[in-house]
């Protein structure tokens, strides 16, 4: 089973590659460390909401909280 951190990392990596950005470039544009970005993309990071928002902004994405349906599995 894929964790939330892994899903976020996969999305960030896929979007970065689609936009043809290097990790170093994305980290610089988003104002996060390269080490932190690498950890996020690897599904090992524990980014703050602020960091995720900055990265998402550069990638043309947005961070959102979506309420689950009551019958949805956790």
Task: Please provide the ordered H/E string of secondary-structure elements.
Answer: HHHH
Given the C-alpha coordinates, what overall shape results? Answer: globular
CATH architecture assignment name: Orthogonal Bundle
Count of DSSP H/I helices? 4
Query: How far apart lie the N and C ends?
Result: 12 Å
Structural class designation = mainly alpha
Q: Biggest sheet, in brief? A: none
Which topology does CATH recognise?
434 Repressor (Amino-terminal Domain)
Fourth CATH level, the homologous superfamily: lambda repressor-like DNA-binding domains
Q: How would you describe this protein?
A:
By secondary structure, the chain is an all-alpha fold. Helix content is 57%, strand content 0%. It is built from 4 helices and no strands. The longest helix is centred in the first third of the chain and has 15 residues, at 4-18. The chain is globular and about 40 Å long.
Brief summary of the model shown:
The chain is mainly alpha-helical and 74 residues long. It has helices at residues 4-18, 23-30, 34-41, 49-59.
Question: What tags apply to this protein structure?
Answer:
single chain, about 70 residues, mainly alpha, 434 Repressor (Amino-terminal Domain), 4 helices, globular
Helix and strand arrangement:
Blueprint: H1 4-18, H2 23-30, H3 34-41, H4 49-59
